[in-house]
Amino acid sequence: MGIPTRTSGEAMLDASLMQLMWLASPALPIGGFSYSEVLEAAVDSGHASTEALAAAWLQDQLHLSLARSDLPVIAQAIAAWRAQDHASIARLNAWVLQTRESHELRAQAEQMGRSLLEWLRNHTTATPDDIVLLAAMDPSYPMAFALAASGTGAPVRACLLAYAFGWAENLTQAAIKSVPLGQSAGQRILSALTAQIPATVEHALALLPGQEQAFSPMLAILSAQHEVQYSRLFRS
């Protein structure tokens, strides 16, 4: 039997999917593993100190934070990168940095943005001109991810699914380390998050430009406390 011939469209779909899987992987060398996005402080304060509480905390963060801020911003940024709308890209990047409500959350967005920028310099996912533009604006991680995702040719919805899954997997690993939990508990948390990601992405895609928001006061309070927490594993 011969090997089935693949069409050019199928080959392009495979390439896009592989690129998104690569971008979503916690193994991508951008330092995501060193951040818990306040989960560690939530564990320390008792808000997420068990499997059930940690699962509920992360699901709330998915719906109340990610769905309203990073995901709609990334969707707009992917469209802007593809249209070479530089003014919108700069505006969205500024919005991300301005709405990080603590020093360590902003530092996370900036450090991961710079790291992904360096990764892009060594890959063909972005053009040299786009990389120069990104480097000139003190890039945040969502803007860098949007540039990388825009070059895959994948639909925006698929790009957001990849980003959200990467976030969920990284935060699940943070929960395993900080609660701490076993691997089976971590898989249960990740399963619950994964089941809710498609609806979260649909919500983000339904938001119009200007409707994105960043209002998570408990995250901001706990992040400020985490900055002076006596003992910690994570940088945020």
What are the main properties of this structure?
single chain; mainly alpha; Urease accessory protein UreF; 11 helices; globular
Can you write the helix and strand succession as a string? HHHHHHHHHHH
Report strand %. Answer: under 5%
Total number of beta strands: 0
Q: Quick one: CATH class?
A: Mainly Alpha
Distance N to C terminus: 55 Å
The CATH superfamily label reads Urease accessory protein UreF
Summarize the structure.
The protein is mostly helical. Helix content is about 70%, strand content about 0%.
Written account of the structure:
Helix 3 packs parallel to helix 10 and helix 4 packs antiparallel against helix 5. The chain is mostly helical. The protein is globular and about 45 Å long.
Write the layout of secondary structure elements.
Blueprint: H1 8-24, H2 39-44, H3 51-66, H4 70-83, H5 86-98, H6 103-121, H7 128-135, H8 141-150, H9 156-178, H10 183-206, H11 217-226
Helix pairs in contact: 1-9, 3-9, 3-10, 4-5, 4-8, 4-9, 6-7, 6-8, 9-10
